[in-house]
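Support reply, case 0932

Customer input (verbatim):
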Amino acid sequence: MFDLLKFKDRTAVITDRNEVITYGQLAEEVENFAAHYYGGFVFTLCENVLGSFVGYVACMNKHIPQVLLDGSKDLELVLRLIGIYQPEYIWMPTSRVDEISGETIYQYQDYSLQKMNYAEPIADKSINPELLLCLTTSGSTGSPKLVRLSEKNLQSNAESIAEYLNIDENERPVTSLPMYYSYGMSVINSHLIKGATILLTDKAVMQREFWSFIKEQKATSISGVPYTYEMLKRLRFFRMELPELKTMCQAGGKLNAAYVKEYVDFAEANGKQFIVMYGQTEAAPRMSYLPSDKAVEKNASIGIAIPGGELCVMDADGTKITEPEVDGELVYKGENVCLGYAETRADLMKGDENHGELHTGDIAKFDADGFFYITGRMKRFVKIWGNRTNLDATEQLVKAITPNCACGGVDDLITVFVTEDGLEEKIKALLVDKTGFNPRAFQVKKIDAIPVKTSGKIDYPELQKMLS
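Our regenerated output:
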């Protein structure tokens, strides 16, 4: 995946702990990690630290199939996924190894490789040789559903991103996103293939240490979800002295068009670029970008297809819509489209079920110039600060407290409807604990009755009308 020796004398990573590692040294650590692997599936519990990063790159370069998970994820959810997929190894923070009944066989920095042993292992643990990486697709709600990605999917997307962002070996991107998140992962991939220097930090954009690190290490780009850029505005980002920062990328949900215009205007006035992108984990993950020279004129658009990809809009009958300004389902075609999903260990053996075509589930249209606009969603997902979150899975969590509940939502806010008083704090505490999201991601609203259709199913469109 990464030609590390091509850039062996260049700096690959600088961390906020003053650690520095060259591409050549990274290649050595990849070999050290791989020497302890004897086949099977790896769970990587990610943190934005060097140990996690080295394990991720080792698996990518040695074609070791892995799934990326949040390293701070609730133990109960991790154990549930272990029970379903029975990974042979877990690459995890050493501080957490006592939570998992495995044997430590290798350590690097503050990370340990745990070899797992099961009383009753799954009989057939075959894995499709094309499979390289799995990512979660339902945010932090603990769904066992994984997106299956091949090396071709990931390589093609990294190359496309590097092309339209003009990435070269002089870039110094800061990890403003977690590496288990497809967007954060793609920032790493698209820069490592070009020999750039990754500025690795686990600090959040709201922390003073994050900005000290950016300034000290002369970061050239930052990537964020809509929430990131809303927070940056509160931090008076436009007044900061960041002369080396040339590129600001936004994806992971729709940023208000007025905000887009503000950032674009700021970028133009200061010799920078603000680039809006659109993607899904299933596309490894980028599908479109808005060229900076169109960012003012088309500030509500997701732009055009990435190099090598194709976007179109289809009607309910699956016919391609050829007239502009007509809503339909957004469909993407490209080498970066995932192989399919996995919900059990046996699914890791499945082949390519998508054949390069992804039905996004988003409603969209295009204008007379061929620029695309998202106008709605077909399915019950919202994005909470960039994490695609399944409202149905969230609802199931709440049912542990009350069966009379239903979830609706918009990006960055899930509303839990209940019919009883006094449940707000209990429900919020549960959801914060299970998802890791800030309490502001949830609101609880009491209504007289959960609306249902004549079929007896919950009337979600009616619930959406009640959102406030």
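We compared this against your earlier run and they match. Two observations from our side: The mean pLDDT is 92. The longest helix spans residues 151-164. Please reopen the case if you see a mismatch on your end.
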